[in-house]
Amino acid sequence: MLDRRNFLKLGGATAFAALFGGCDKIPKKIIPFVIPPENHTLGEALWYASECRQCPAGCGIVVRVSEGRAKKIEGNPLHPVNRGKLCARGQAALQSLYHPERLARPFALTGPRGSGRFREISWEEALSLLLGEMKKIRGKTPTPLLLLTEPMRGHRNLVAARFMRAFGSPDRVAWDPFGQDAFLAANEAVFGVRDVPEIDIARTRYLLSFSGDFLETWGSPVHYARAYGAMRQDRATVRGKFVHLGPRLSMTAASADLFLPIAPGTDGVAALGIAHVLVKEKLTAQAIGASALWNEGLKEFTPEVVAKKTGAPPRVLAYVAREFAGNQPGLAMAGNGAAGCTNGTFNLACVALLNVLAGNVGMPGGLSFPNRVAAFTRYGAEAGLFAPPPESGYPAVRRAVGKMRSGGFRMALLSGSTNPAFTLPAALKFREALLAVPFIVSFASFLDETSFLSDLVLPVPTFLEDWGDDIAPAGHSGDAVTLSQPVVNAFHDTRSMADVLLAAAKELGGEMQRALPWGSFRECLEEAYRGTGKPWEDALREGGFFSLAPGPSRATARASGPALPKVAEASFEGEAAKYPLVFHVYPSTSHYDGRGANLPWLQELPDPVSTAVWRNWVEISPGTAKELGLSDGDGVIVASPSGSLEAFVSLHPGVAPGVAAMPLGQGHSHYGKDARDRGGNPFSILPALEESVARGPAWQSTRVSLTRAKIGGRLVRTAHPEGQWKIGNVM
What we know:
By secondary structure, the chain is an alpha/beta fold. 29% of the residues lie in helices and 17% in strands. The protein contains 26 helices and 27 strands.
């Protein structure tokens, strides 16, 4: 029987010989505690530090383990990102660990692709198949191998990058449906830095949010929620004010002091209306010298002109501008709703301009750009792999789809939880293109829409059974590296993708073995952090290295003299006569991009606004519903120029007129019984459009129609849709 120390040693020994020889050493039976394993005492709980990977935020966690079983997950109080707090998605990760539908052994396809006919095989056979196919294509120039993963950070990304480079393939693609392409492009244009800033919500006095649900899903919601609480109540004489502008009253908007509903895609215009008042009335020191902006066209964006485009009352816009200027430091931020329009870069650049006019760049209560890879400068040109900018990878995905269609790939390696067959628009035809690749390998824990199309499925551990390191994209100044470790013995016979790639490199030899010299991924991590001044065991106990010396914040060269962003209007696919409503989609607070939909805890978690569970719904205002002859709870067909799906109507007085809002994440055709057949997939009816500048996915760029239809079931909610109020009393 394995004790914890020997288990961790065995988990690191994953050269092919170890993989082949160790495949059958996982205990197959429940072993009684006659001789308890090391660190296990009946009735006594132990806590192990690690990292949550339920979303890209990178929160630190501690896991309570009792008698060899993980029982509870909480936030790590030592971790700078979340300081002991954790969201519901992180808490629900236990269900992934013990899910009855987890893949326990490798599977090989025995029927046509998409038939679901797989046979269970040994790891020895699976890895022989993998290596055999690699040897067939190795040596071709360029090597026709595609690696498509979720965005990775830390040494997992280093291993993947070195493997593909040594193998001779330039086609390493990372896909994130909520990548920050427009944010990066806007920051580069306004500040001269292509990165995500550190946003000091905790010390600001006035917060402006433009379609940014930072308390729910955008960026690092646990970190921002904690900072928001500090802004509101940690200072004895200061209670920061919060104003939210957007097309929908989300949970974040509902937490604001003032919510201004505006038309989708007009966030940038609204920001310029506020900037107009700041400069015209010389309300801040930076606004006094902004005559260049005024002459470039800012003078045209009067509150009255802006009101006609956005729907926000001009008097209120001017009032917000004066309050913003009079309560410094003030902070303006924008999120997915503004970035996902075809004019997303324009929207976010205009919001960034407000921070320049407020003079908060590099100041407490404002924003700054820390160098988060300062601790990895010894890697030279590879340092950027440890904390790459959070791009969507959409242009690379589109190129890969075209190359797949033309027969440019002979083999594809797929890994991660972003599930491109589900999260890419159907109009891109990713599924059809993928099926043109002769051999497809998926590293997965569950059979989702993407792994279901594979020839070979290799089961990977959950993050509670895996090694790793990470540099979170927000919440620190570059002085924090999070470590992941197995908190329990492997529940199934799994291997991480990093360990499989290291073993493959050793078998292939030559340049590949020289590029990846480690015997295991754990060995790679231990070697990397040797000499940091903190013993490895201490770092594992605390959850990482949180006292590294941060580098200086990067200079914002362009902030001193920014140009007025080039005006761009949002465009929407579909004729208004046929598709009268603008379609506004947003990540689900429970399922995010769909990765949490197979967990019953998250399916049962009520949406914070509609309180709906288990199904899809589309939100429209009571006025819009009256015009369309629809009532709350009606079944409808939501149709766009790209497709259609079924959903239930949910009346929401906080949705802007002429807008239909819908959460993403439901609509799986595979991914287990709890995710399957829960309504339609909103991703599938979105156009395959790009944002005009950054080329990220333009999710907020289509129109839809709603047609009453008889569909099975009903919309289940945990509370009356009107709660303690009546719609008629607040309209």
